[in-house]
Design goal:
Blueprint lengths: L2 H33 L2 H23 L6 H6 L7 H19 L1 H22 L11 H19 L5 H11 L1
Helix pairs in contact: 1-2, 1-4, 1-5, 2-4, 4-5, 4-7, 5-6
């Protein structure tokens, strides 16, 4: 694929993966309610992910990395699983309470702001890309849109309970 086609394909796949996030959060929320244990639902979700990836790896049989390669990796390269578990647990607990739209726009707003910071600094292996006026305006629009969705979401019983829990 050439540059523009590859970029569009990558964006389309990322959008499709993003569309799965509220479905996953809803499914995990249903497990949490059924189990009456959000962390057990989180465990089950991550366990099934591990089994699926393990089966795919058995089929593909990639070469294992050498110890020398593992030693050269930065320490922060190992935190992806931990961060994924935190996200899945957060989604399992809060998505059903906030609703799919409010949860997702909050996630996207947080991702967008953190992404700007990571691009600006080149942290965690990203190529450094300084903020441009267009990027800053785009991110401001994402955050403003997220706030609009969240603030215009009617409080359900679960949302009201969450707000009450947050206030103590």
């Amino acid at each position: 694929m050439n540059g523009a086609t590859g970029l569009l394909f990558g964006v389309a796949i990322a959008a499709l993966a993003g569309a799965l996030i509220p479905v996953q959060a809803g499914a995990n929320g249903a497990l949490a309610r059924g189990f009456d244990a959000p962390l057990l639902a989180t465990f089950w979700s991550l366990f099934t992910s591990t089994v699926l990836v393990g089966i795919v790896l058995l089929c593909l049989r990639p070469a294992l990395p050498s110890p020398a390669l593992l030693e050269r990796l930065p320490a922060w390269a190992w935190i992806g699983g931990l961060l994924g578990a935190i996200f899945v647990a957060t989604a399992t607990i809060f998505a059903p309470r906030l609703g799919a739209a409010a949860f997702t726009v909050a996630v996207v707003a947080g991702q967008t702001m953190a992404s700007l910071a990571l691009d600006s600094t080149g942290a965690f292996g990203y190529v450094q890309r300084m903020p441009t006026p267009g990027r800053l305006i785009g991110i401001a629009l994402v955050v403003a849109g997220g706030l609009l969705v969240v603030l215009s979401t009617p409080a359900s019983g679960a949302s009201a309970d969450l707000a009450h829990e947050a206030r103590g």
